[in-house]
Amino acid sequence: MHIRNWIVLVGAALVLTGCAAGRQGPPPGFGADDDDHGDGPPRPRAQLFISPSGQPFRAPGGQPYPVAVWFAQADANHDGRLTRDEFRADADRWFKALDVNGDGQISMPEVTRWEEELVPEITRSGLGMSGASGRPTAAKRNTVDTRLQGAAAYSLINEPHPIRGADSDFSFGVSQAEWRAASDRRFALLDVDGDGVLLLTDLKPTPAQAMAGMRPAGKRTDQRPEGRDGPRRPR
Known about the structure:
The chain is α+β, with helices and mostly antiparallel strands. It has six helices and eight strands; from the N terminus they run H-E-E-H-E-H-E-H-E-E-E-H-E-H. The chain has one domain.
């Protein structure tokens, strides 16, 4: 009789533990805030956008997605067109911010600072995301799912770790030359028509933005779609 009661208690504890684990909320930008309680509708979770170079931008839930804030910062002459030179200059400015000791190299301690202090959200798991290491998550047999890992969930480019991604020689450090090469590569990925200019309306929504059901920045609600991506603004 005692053994039967013990089995029942252990089984109940396991069920409760599983329920508690199942209540863990999604990562920032994908649902309601964890601290929302009461009978009213949940508040939108604070939003995160990570620029192609890894700079985080945040906005309260319900406000416009902060990709527009990054674009306005990078668009130095504020003409609504982001050129390759402006994109490079924005990336170079962020390199200097990450290079805390000013030695012209982003070293491992500075990478750790980016991961743990500047964008701690990327270490949370959910919706197929992995941590900042960018280690792929198994999706199907003999395949891996590299979507929604680390920074990629909040970025315009599917790159889980923009800092380590620039370390082309795998030296566990990023030089200015490597950083500039990575910047040019990222611009080319975004400049799909190859005209050397990015418009805010050209940028596709990040996975976080799409999961929240928000339209891409700069898109009008009354604009009729033409094809998959809608009409492009004439240059």
